[in-house]
Amino acid sequence: MSSGTVIFFVLIAGVTVLGFLAARWRRAAVASLDEWALGGRNFGTVVSWFLLGGDLYTAYTFIALPALAYGAGALAFFAVPYTTLAYPLTFFFMARFWTIAKRRGYVTAADFVHDRYGSRALELVIALTGVLAILPYIALQLIGMQTVLEDVGLSAAHIAPVAFLIAGFVLLAAYTFISGLRAPAMIAFVKDTLIYITVIAALAVIPSHLGGWAHIFASAQSVLASRPKASSTMLLPGQYASYATLALGSAMALFLYPHSVTGCLSARNANVIRRNCALLPLYSLLLAFITLLGFCALAAGIKLTNNNQAVPELFVHFFPSWFTGVAFAAIVMGALVPAAVMSIGAANLFASNILQSFRARRERPSSELGIARGLALCVLTASFIIAVAIKPLFAINFQLLGGAWIVQIFPAFVLGLYTRRLHPVALLAGWCVGMSAATWMAVWTGFSSVFQFSAAGHKISAAIVFCALLANLVTAAVVTLLLAAFKTGAGRDLTTAADYA
Fold this sequence. Notes:
Mean pLDDT: 85
Helix content: over 70%
Oligomer: single chain
Low-confidence stretches: none
Number of helices: 22
């Protein structure tokens, strides 16, 4: 067994122990849903920064974006503006939501939607959308783990990668069940530190071995342009609309995911969220450098049958075995942290909004923790099955489909924080249209992120996530006007003006 494999196992074993010890962090008794799922709503700026960074910048960051750059060129860099655009939006609406959630005891976005519109049906579809969108996202983390395990040297140790993947999944499920949100919060400190070390080392070593960035870009451009489906290190004119709409639509979706909501609600106060919206763009800078590793793999002449292997092969090629073990451990931790938070977020939706209504949960709080814990295991198991059974060309498309789904709650949730002019029935109609459009376009394009229209003899490409949301908003607005014309009642708003102050 190589030194890299030994270091990899030691680091993963270490963070697993941390995951179990986290149940006693800050002398907490994980005996209520608030303690297990939200860390007691008591994380400060530093802890929240690490947790949200570990939650939002995942194995998708290390594996899928460089893979997309390796396979499709400049389009992969949409992630840099999208994460940058997301924080100004979040600065306003998520801090507002935290204040309302704290006052009214909300654990999920669907809790708020239930009270805002007095609609059980709308609460249910918002919750179902969150669960549906999160399953492929968790599966993406497991795909990232699987990708690393194929290069970590397990075959030389006579260990099948799938065996370790199963073992990692079981340990992840166990410490999530026991420690709740405190486990990924504690592991995130180690994970983020190792990621920064790995990226800094990659930027210091790899470009110098490849003749500098000018040579890397020239070589990558030559390879991309010579392929049957040519692409480029610079956006082509036909990609402008795709790039812009993909960035904007993804930015609107980022903080709607259950794990993003869970991470934000764990904050001590609304100002913690605002501070983190100012600090988290540091990760966006890191994101740009990570995506460039896809171009480095092209310049290094690495030939792949699976684009997701771009970064693992790059580290194997340029670094000694021991450091490769550190890098691979960082990537696996980048899967473990968000997968835990995602399963908790999805379990909250099941326990609070699907199996029973938010009102019923408030009346029967004694059983909610056990239900949420059990459901977290079910969510992780379903995601594991998806990850093993389905293998998309680019792992990023797995997450982008979830983004096209989750953004459909934007009208009811985000706009609902500021206005109640949209009728709940119209919001349901808009959701149906948006979800149907997103799913149809994704299937039609072979699970691509972009859909091409023909209009007046011209072909226009736009991101599916953006097109589906636009269809949702237009439908909701039109149906609201029609219902207003017939003077149809809009239900009862259970929130008060004081909740928004």
